[in-house]
Amino acid sequence: MEDFKLNFKNLWKYYLVKVAFLLLGLYLFTLGIAIYTPTSVGASHMDFSIFAIISTLHGVVGDNSNVDLGYYPNLLTLYFVGILIGALIFGLIFSVKDWKENKNKMTWINLTIIILADLIIVFGLPQMVNMQWLYIPQDAIANINNASARNWIFIGAYSIYVFGVAFWVMSGILGGPYNTICTYLMKATGWKYNVARIVADLIITFPGFIFILANGLTWSQKGDFMLTYLNFGSICFVILTGPIVGLIIPKINKVWNIEDYKTKLQNLNTQ
Asked: Tell me, what's the pLDDT at 1?
């Protein structure tokens, strides 16, 4: 405990910067989501499943089989809860195994911290999207008939989104249940992160196909739904996000490298 107090005293500015990166990342991340969703230019793997569930429960609207985004925040929360339950099951399996081998109390403390941190994202992030919609003109964006204009709005929103992901990742705080389950998949299988993420993406997307195929929409509406939410934007989210974020982070590090700042503070405190 004394080591923790001393560490925090010496590095509080470093932790403050990490929190600032987290808040900026979450703000940009949710802003990007709030702007892109009304464009109907594809959807992320998770949003595709959420939109499919909305279409099943509440039907679709318009000629392109769009969904009512008013249901989005609550269903995003429920979907996060489902992912968190999966992460918790994985976490319990590994924690029980580690406890039997090492009898280390930190095993349970670490699991508790991870789950509590994920809960913040589970219930906080959807409400941040909801708050963004207080000043984002959803209807105005959704009613733009010019496909080229909607594509450009999507590109702008997606650019904001990937910068949000970059700052969030760089903060190293509150990874969320999705990253937690990817981590546990890596432990369970020995896969690299990229492989674990692809498998997690497929698992998260799969329910969307089940819902859209099994719901009461006509086949014409199902086809319109697929064309609306599985197209150009979907490719960006699934294929491009990782590589683009990988390019952005080094650029941000050139402006302000958090870990270099930590080293600088440590050197100052040892003088």
From this structure: 46
* Exposed e or buried b per residue across 12-42, where buried means at least 16 C-beta atoms within 10 angstroms of its C-beta: eebeebbeebbebbbbbbbbbbbbbbbbbbb
Q: Where are the domains of the chain?
A: 2-270
d(CA 54, CA 70): 10
Residue 123 neighbours by CB under 8 Å, 6+ apart: 77, 80
Average pLDDT of the chain, as a whole number: 83
Whether 67 and 58 have beta carbons less than 8 Å apart is answered as yes
pLDDT score for 2 = 45
Quick check: 5 pLDDT over 60?
no
Strands, DSSP E only, in the chain? none
pLDDT of residue 271: 58
Neighbours of 64 (CB within 10 A): 14
Q: How far apart are CA 235 and CA 230, in angstroms?
A: 8
Contact 55/208 with Cβ under 8 angstroms? no
Distance CA 233, CA 44 (A): 7
CA distance 59 to 67: 7
